[in-house]
């Protein structure tokens, strides 16, 4: 059952990978927008 557990964890990482990247991308854009606002003001 040890191998099966490792396989399940790998599948979870593959599924969570893209979601985390999207979150980082959105956060990065929001951070740039906030910096632009500070510079504009």
From TrEMBL:
GO terms for molecular function: structural constituent of ribosome. GO terms for cellular component: ribonucleoprotein complex; ribosome. Gene3D superfamilies: Ribosomal protein S11. InterPro entries: Ribosomal_uS11_sf. Keywords: Ribonucleoprotein, Ribosomal protein. GO terms for biological process: translation. This is Uncharacterized protein.
């Amino acid at each position: 059952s040890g191998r099966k557990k490792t396989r399940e964890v790998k599948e979870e990482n593959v599924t969570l990978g893209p979601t985390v990247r999207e979150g980082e991308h959105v956060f990065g854009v929001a951070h740039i927008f906030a910096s632009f606002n500070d510079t504009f003001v």
